[in-house]
From TrEMBL:
Residues 141-370 form the Sigma-54 factor interaction domain. The modification 4-aspartylphosphate is found at D54. The keyword rRNA processing does not apply. Residues 3-119 form the Response regulatory domain. PROSITE patterns: RESPONSE_REGULATORY, SIGMA54_INTERACT_2, SIGMA54_INTERACT_4. One of its GO terms (molecular function) is DNA binding. Signal peptide: none annotated. Keywords: ATP-binding, DNA-binding, Nucleotide-binding, Phosphoprotein, Transcription, Transcription regulation, Two-component regulatory system. PANTHER family: TRANSCRIPTIONAL REGULATORY PROTEIN (PTHR32071). It comes from Flagellimonas zhangzhouensis. The lineage of its organism: Bacteria, Pseudomonadati, Bacteroidota, Flavobacteriia, Flavobacteriales. The keyword Transcription regulation applies. This is DNA-binding transcriptional response regulator, NtrC family, contains REC, AAA-type ATPase, and a Fis-type DNA-binding domains.
Length: 387
């Protein structure tokens, strides 16, 4: 049920608004306030889905109510009620965050349409917040070891900036997770996060993938196509396994970082982009530079901040926490009850050599949940988690 608050000092207009809304939809629970001060107290005490608020009122006018309410509960949509002489003020309230305004006397169709649209918008905002929380949780770093604590501290400091970050570590350690977390905690979190796996794209196609191409640039270029940098505009691009990128593509990436502009393959027209670049590699880039396979100037552009993700073998105390996390996640995905692991099973798993890191541990946990008993035992580990 949608809770609507009507703040209006003229009792006749207030009664009309309440009557119209109550009769329009059985799912509208309509509440009243006779002035702005009463309205603010109601907003503090209850969670409303929508507020209709008059502009000209004694004690506290509608503009003051709007500003105060947005500080308390910024997600509540406001529809302002304006007299003929209040139109300029009504327009100004939209700059302050009001959803819309309606004039007195209210037109029935306009009023109901605006109310429905405002409630739909509120529902969408709530859904987006829930989704964002779920996304953030999916990319949460699990662990209480000193190594993970150091990474979390670095992310808290780095994420609010636009500094470029180079993430290093072995395969399966969670480099992608770090990149997602930096983006989610940054001011760009509502903008696109575009991932590019440089190792998975053939060298002859990587430039087109990153920067786009124009029609006729090469045989299969049948139409103009935007690249990943354009898609990531105002957001973040994550260049995974950047050590596998061709030298010619590296030169173009360097230009994009230096000048904040790119050009599509086959075109000499510059396109300005505003993109934060995060990169990751499992290679020793300094060794790659010595071997002439990676540009030193690009390395220094990318490695403003260096985050090294430790191997799982270097943070074994986090293994029980990771097993608990994966058990919950797998049970949720499969719609089954979560399985527990015996202490001896956990100790045995802590002693394994995890060459595949966290990715390998996740696979082993899933295998044990499927094949093991009601509680995963030491015997289950010996039978099903063997290398």
């Amino acid at each position: 049920m949608s809770k609507i608050l009507v703040i209006e000092d003229e009792s006749a207009i207030r009664r009309v608004l309440v009557k119209i809304l109550a009769e329009e939809n059985d799912n509208y629970s309509v509440h009243e306030a006779e002035n702005g001060l009463e309205g603010i107290e109601a907003v503090k005490k209850e969670d409303f889905d929508l507020v209709l608020c008059d502009i000209k009122m004694p004690k506290m006018d509608g503009v003051e109510v709007l500003e105060a309410a947005k500080k308390i509960k910024p997600e509540i949509p406001f529809i302002m009620i304006s007299g003929h002489g209040d139109l300029d003020t009504a327009v100004n309230t939209m700059r302050l965050g009001a959803f819309d305004y309606i004039s007195k006397p209210p037109d029935l169709n306009r009023l109901l349409t605006t109310v429905r649209n405002a409630l739909d918008r509120k529902e969408l905002v709530v859904e987006n917040k829930i989704l964002k929380k779920k996304v953030s949780k999916n990319y949460e770093m699990i662990g209480e070891s000193d190594e993970i604590g150091t990474i979390k501290d670095m992310i808290e400091k780095v994420a609010p900036t636009d500094a470029r970050v180079l993430i290093t570590g072995s395969n399966g350690t969670g480099k992608e997770l770090v990149a997602h977390w930096v983006h989610q905690k940054s001011p760009r979190s509502s903008a696109p996060f575009i991932e590019v796996n440089c190792a998975a794209i053939p060298s002859e196609l990587i430039e087109s993938e990153l920067f786009g191409h124009v029609k006729g640039a090469f045989t299969s270029a049948v139409k103009d196509r935007a690249g990943k940098f354009e898609a990531a505009n105002k957001g973040t691009i994550f260049l995974d396994e950047i050590g596998d990128m061709s030298l010619s593509a590296q030169a173009k990436v360097l230009r994009a970082l230096q000048e904040n502009k790119i050009s599509r393959v086959g075109s000499d027209k510059d396109i300005k982009v505003d993109v934060r670049v995060l990169a990751a590699t499992n290679k020793d880039l300094k060794k790659e530079i010595e071997d002439g396979k990676f540009r030193e100037d690009l390395y220094h552009r990318l490695a403003v901040i260096l985050i090294k993700v430790p191997a799982l073998n270097d943070r074994r105390d986090d293994i029980p926490l990771l097993i608990e996390h994966f058990s919950q996640k797998i049970a949720s995905e499969q719609g089954t009850a979560q399985k527990s692991f015996s202490k001896k099973a956990l100790e045995l798993l802590k002693g394994y050599d995890w060459t595949g890191n966290v990715r390998e541990l996740r696979n082993v946990v899933e295998r044990l949940i499927i094949l093991g008993g009601k509680e995963v035992s030491e015997e289950d580990v010996k039978l099903f988690a063997s290398k």
